[in-house]
Amino acid sequence: MTAQILDGKELSKKIKENLKLEVDKLKENGITPKLAVIMVGDNSASAVYVKNKSNACKKVGIEFEEFLLPTETTEDELIKLIEKLNANSNIDGILLQSPVPHHININRAFETILPSKDVDGFNAVNVGNLTIGRDCFVSCTPYGVMRMLEEYNIDIAGKTAVVIGRSNIVGKPMLQCLLSKDATVTICHSKTKNLEEVVSKADIVIAAIGKPNFVTGNMIKEGAVVIDVGINRLEDGKLCGDVNYEEASSKASYITPVPGGVGPMTVAMLVENVVKAAKQRKQ
Ligand code: NDP
User: Is the dihedral of CA 143, 147, 148, 153 positive or negative?
Assistant: First the structure.
């Protein structure tokens, strides 16, 4: 079997074109959606992610303001800036790019962002609402994965899904999203025993580990759907995912490439969340 590629690049383009039409309508009603992005300290990977987000926002007509803070910024200074942005009615979304320097408690910062402006879905209110099935801002990466599965008409209900990785920003919300669509979900992490065996039973495999080529072909059930969230930079500068693409694609029914899979979907979902926040401002 050769897997069909889940083309996140193409799909995200389509989504952004539709979002542009919605932004045009909002502007006709006097509302220009605006996203504020805060980055603390120098981090070349973060700078690339922020640039991608900025380009995507600008393409659909969303205003984008960047706050680049020096590494020595204190937690209180960061909190004060977030509070200022919370109070600014022209700003619909606030995004704090992670990682931040170690002396800053990122969870306290996420908690300070108003839930109604938390377009990354990291605030505990949004996380809680996701868990109990209320409308909320869903973390952009799991949200992008779900949108991709939906657009490609991939059945989820009753399927066995295994998520590898339990981070607050990917693994855990991914579990909630799949569960809300009636999958039977298992989450694996670094302490999981017999991980290979667990993964090899899955109809849907989501890899979010941060280790190049961690998921090998022998872990993939014939016909499984394989979603590779990982973004790893190799020594030669090339990007690769957490899944051994060559091996997995010979067994999977569908697979996401890296780059061009989950990454662009994550950015598209951020744009969608900002548009949603702006619409709520209108109401
Ligand atoms: P984290 O480092 O926060 O989490 C990694 C998870 O993988 C942890 O739960 C960890 O387990 C688990 N893990 C690590 N080693 C093993 C192992 N040997 N066996 C089983 N589980 C293991 O990473 P993130 O969730 O933030 O990101 C994961 C990957 O996704 C990264 O490559 C990141 O760059 C990428 N990413 C991509 C995005 C996109 O848009 N495509 C967006 C966000 C992230 P434990 O909890 O036990 O330590």
Answer: positive
C-beta separation of 33 from 278 below 8 A: yes
pLDDT tens per residue across span 146-171: 999 999 999 999 999 999 999 999 99
Q: What are the contacts of 110-114 at 24+ separation with CB within 8 A?
A: 112/79, 112/82, 112/83, 112/86, 113/82, 113/86, 114/86
Kindly give the distance from the C-alpha atom of residue 213 to the centroid of ligand 1, in angstroms, as a whole number.
Answer: 13
CA dist., res. 63 & res. 32, Å (int): 7
Ligand 1 pocket test, pick from 231, 243, 273 with the greatest ligand atom count within 8 Å of Cβ, gives: 231
Residues of the chain with pLDDT > 70, as a percent, come to 99
Span 207-228, mean pLDDT?
98
Report the pLDDT value the prediction gives residue 65, as an integer from 0 to 100.
Answer: 97
Verify whether residue 182 is a known catalytic residue: no
Rounded Cα–Cα distance for residues 212 and 67 (Å):
32
Inter-residue contact 208 to 167 (CB < 8 Å): yes
Residue 272 near residue 280 (C-beta atoms within 8 A): no
**What is the model's pTM?**
0.97
